[in-house]
């Protein structure tokens, strides 16, 4: 008897354990599927699916795969030996690849191409924004046939306030009065037997409504940054003519579709620093877009962890590089990277040329004027957002921060335009595919800089010089091509990016 009981108990606990285990797995999976990276992917499926159409699924596939990198050879340690070693392993010098590709490039007509693509691109985004706004409106006015054509924030806030006042009046009525007025909302009649009073209900309703509104308001503002029709400021797009590959910058890469696992780990050279820096090829392109000249005074406004600043230093061109970042911990990483890659030789002391600054880039001031400014802004970091839950901008508690990104980006770019001298250049870059954060912010910043500070900057069209990268990475073309900048698209053949790179030259 005891044995039967024991057996029953143990088989029951086995089932309970199994059920528990099953339940645990199930919930864990559920939680995972609704985590920030899935939220990001759903958001991108919707937004980028609308913007890029058929081009989005292969980009998404690439985004979810391991990214690829190039090797930026360190001029401060065993560079000849490293180049030889990488060449022997089948890597190519990026400068040589670009030179060869340039020879095969066709004649380019920037105006015509920009015009064609910008028209089609604008209408795609406009359609998406209008669909998004309709969705938002129908969420706010679920029963109404009288849906406003455009979201008017003030109207909606008035409506919520009106609603709240109504609720307050209801709350102050007696139960009989409330029942008399029951046609307002039948579902809100409170059964006294339930022990709930109208006060409780009143507190609940507006709180939920206001929470929904909280997220909804900035979402509309977010997309308002893409207002492509608004052109009441000088907007000039010219072909880039100054572009050249810096003599001392050595970058090694593998061609498209080749075996990318062949790069070995960077190793310490005889001088103690690492022999190469692995990075996304699009980051190198952002530095190339600066068109650095000897003696330049360069500001990297959002520099941490210092990858692009390091590439700029590897050109051996700038005299001064100011590396600013608002985050102290990330700025410390920049310093650590520089210590790992730079050494002093003779009178050339890197600490005398590199200045680390830790202020909000929107408030950075300077009285000399910079020759070049790089604004590599915080963004939705698309690749990171779909792959990692940690530090993900799509986390529910970061909604406001995410929706305010274009505003922050615009303010940073406007300040960069103020900080660059007339004749100098600003490069604006993101690692996002979002036309709102890319062309949208660029447009808004140019407009704001002109209206507030009478600053005029010309957009330099990089299409022609960057065409020579076509055997290395994939740049957006046709309807997917931005109007002002260049967009590096993730692809399984050359899994770099995403990155947006735009070059501006201040003329006033
Ligand atoms: N350029 C860097 C590189 O190549 O290694 C990457 C920069 S990362 C895309 C953006 C940086 O902007 C982050 O390090 C972040 O701390 C910084 N940042 C965010 N808000 C900022 C602000 N208001 N002012 C300055 N930096 C800011």
Short description:
This protein is 48% helix and 12% strand.
Arithmetic mean pLDDT: 80
Unreliable stretches covering 5 or more consecutive residues: 1-23, 107-120, 139-168, 184-212
Distance between the termini: 97 Å
Total E-strand runs: 13
CATH superfamily of the domain at 60-129 and 233-506: Vaccinia Virus protein VP39
Helix/strand-derived category reads alpha/beta
Task: Provide the CATH architecture of the domain at 60-129 and 233-506.
Answer: 3-Layer(aba) Sandwich
Radius of gyration computed on alpha carbons: 28 Å
User: Helix content range of the residues, please?
Assistant: 40-55%
Could you walk me through the main structural features you see in this protein, from its secondary elements to its overall organization?
- The protein is α/β, with parallel strands linked by helices.
- 48% of the residues lie in helices and 12% in strands.
- It is built from 18 helices and 13 strands.
- The strands form two sheets. Strands 3, 6, 7, 8, 9, 10, 11, 12 and 13 form a nine-stranded mixed sheet that branches.
- Helix 10 (281-288) crosses helix 11 (307-314).
- The longest helix is centred in the N-terminal third of the chain and has 32 residues, at 2-33.
- The radius of gyration is 28 Å and the shape is globular.
- S-adenosylmethionine is lined by residues 283, 302-308, 325-327, 330, 360-362, 376, 378.
């Amino acid at each position: 008897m005891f044995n039967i009981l024991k057996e029953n108990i143990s088989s029951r606990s086995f089932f309970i354990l199994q059920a528990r285990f099953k339940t645990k797995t199930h919930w864990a999976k559920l939680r995972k599927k609704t985590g920030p990276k899935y939220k990001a992917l759903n958001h991108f499926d919707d937004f980028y699916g609308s913007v890029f159409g058929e081009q989005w699924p292969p980009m998404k596939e690439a985004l979810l795969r391991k990214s690829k990198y190039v090797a930026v050879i360190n001029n401060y340690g065993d560079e000849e030996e490293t180049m030889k070693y990488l060449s022997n392993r089948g890597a190519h010098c990026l400068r040589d690849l670009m030179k060869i590709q340039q020879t095969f490039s066709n004649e380019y007509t920037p105006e015509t191409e920009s015009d064609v693509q910008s028209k089609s691109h604008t209408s795609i985004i406009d359609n998406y924004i209008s669909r998004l706004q309709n969705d938002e409106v129908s969420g706010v006015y679920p029963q109404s046939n009288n849906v406003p054509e455009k979201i008017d924030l003030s109207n909606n806030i008035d409506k919520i306030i009106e609603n709240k006042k109504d609720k307050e009046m209801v709350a102050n009525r007696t139960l009989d009065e409330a029942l008399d007025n029951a046609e307002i909302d039948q579902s809100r009649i409170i059964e006294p037997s339930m022990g709930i009073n109208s006060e409780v209900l009143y507190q609940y309703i507006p709180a939920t409504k206001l929470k929904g509104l909280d997220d909804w308001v900035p979402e509309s503002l977010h997309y308002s940054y893409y207002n492509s029709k608004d052109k009441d400021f000088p907007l000039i797009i010219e072909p880039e003519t100054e572009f050249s590959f810096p003599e001392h910058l050595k970058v090694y890469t593998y061609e498209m579709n080749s075996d990318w696992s062949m790069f070995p780990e960077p190793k310490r050279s005889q001088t103690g620093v690492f022999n190469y820096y692995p990075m996304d090829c699009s980051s190198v392109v952002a530095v190339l877009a600066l068109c650095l000249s000897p003696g330049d005074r360069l500001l990297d406004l959002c520099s941490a962890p210092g990858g692009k600043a390091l590439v700029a230093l590897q050109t051996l061109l700038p005299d001064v590089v100011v590396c600013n970042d608002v985050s102290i911990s990330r700025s410390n990483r920049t310093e650590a990277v520089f210590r790992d890659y730079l050494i002093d030789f003779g009178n050339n002391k890197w600490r005398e040329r590199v200045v680390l600054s830790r202020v909000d880039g929107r408030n950075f001031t300077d009285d000399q004027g910079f020759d070049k400014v790089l604004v590599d802004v915080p963004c939705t970091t698309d690749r990171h957002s779909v792959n990692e839950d940690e530090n993900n901008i799509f986390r529910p508690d970061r909604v406001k921060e995410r929706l305010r990104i274009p505003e922050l980006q615009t303010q940073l770019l406007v300040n960069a335009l103020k900080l660059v001298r007339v004749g100098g250049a600003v490069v604006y870059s993101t690692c996002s595919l979002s036309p709102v954060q890319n062309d949208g912010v660029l447009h808004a910043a140019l407009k704001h800089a002109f209206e507030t500070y009478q600053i005029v900057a010309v957009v330099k069209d990089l299409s022609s010089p960057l065409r020579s990268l076509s055997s290395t990475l994939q740049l957006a073309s046709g309807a997917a091509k931005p109007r002002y900048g260049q967009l590096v698209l993730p692809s399984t053949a050359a899994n770099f990016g995403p990155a947006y790179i735009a070059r501006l030259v201040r003329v006033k």
